[in-house]
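Researcher: Re-running this chain for the archive, since the previous output was lost when a drive failed. Same request as before.
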Amino acid sequence: MTAPLLVVGEALVDIVGSAKSRNGNGKSNATPGGSPANVAVGLARLGVPTELVTRIGTDAYGDQLGAHLFGNGVQLAPGSVDPNFRTSTATATLDADGVATYQFDITWEPPALSLSRGCPAIHTGSIATVLEPGAASIHDFLASVADQPVTVTLDPNARPSITPDPVSTWDAVRALAALSDLVKLSDEDCEFLRPGLAPVDIAKELLTAERTQCVVITRGGDGALGISRDAHVDVTAPVIEVVDTVGAGDSFMSALIAGLDARELLGERRLVGLTSEDLRDVVDYAVKAAAITCTRHGADPPTAAEHTEKWGS
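Model: Regenerated structure tokens:
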């Protein structure tokens, strides 16, 4: 039996509201979130068995997260629930266009990290990869499994409020990217981490690492780019009515991984043999998954059935 795909990183509660709510003139609500946790849920909803290594408490927010993860079929790794831990939060404020900005109250120190035999892929990213002491644990873990038959995917999901120095943050991203087979960035990540450099040039820079096979860059309503050593695809996004963008990038990431898994490009393949057609198809699948998330409130990725019903594939 194949082991579940492993996701490593933070799970937290998003306290989402409009700009009015911060001034006491509107409402906010608490919803499960955290980029890696969102990716884990998205993968499970798309039919990919998934285990999440995280750290949550047994307080009200932790109970809410646990119910959400279990309810969506995500396994929690041993040690992820800690009665002595205060569950982290992110306050997300939406502007008039539904675009979110965040303020975080987070501590990150993961339980022991280990790789199960047969695990097809490890995904990590976001705050967990830059906030100590957990960031060092993730780097050391990825280095320790570098010779194992597992595919590694990375989404830095830069948070300037957590790491305001783009130079040191980029150094950390480069170090993790060199241990990853696929790196996903947003256009906002690119602007923060490598200001003035074209996204394609950033991708080429990351592809100089021996292990890295593919870089995908999302561009919001303009779609996404997929760039590998042998291919370059530009996929447009469908026209939708945006409710908010919370979790859209995470939905994209989970669908991207699920698409690669369906093509048996994970595990020991490590994306070797990824064709231009494969790349276009998986990026298109991911763009459409993100589009569905943008049509509803909060980090709410689609199921495989919802994706098929909406887009036909």
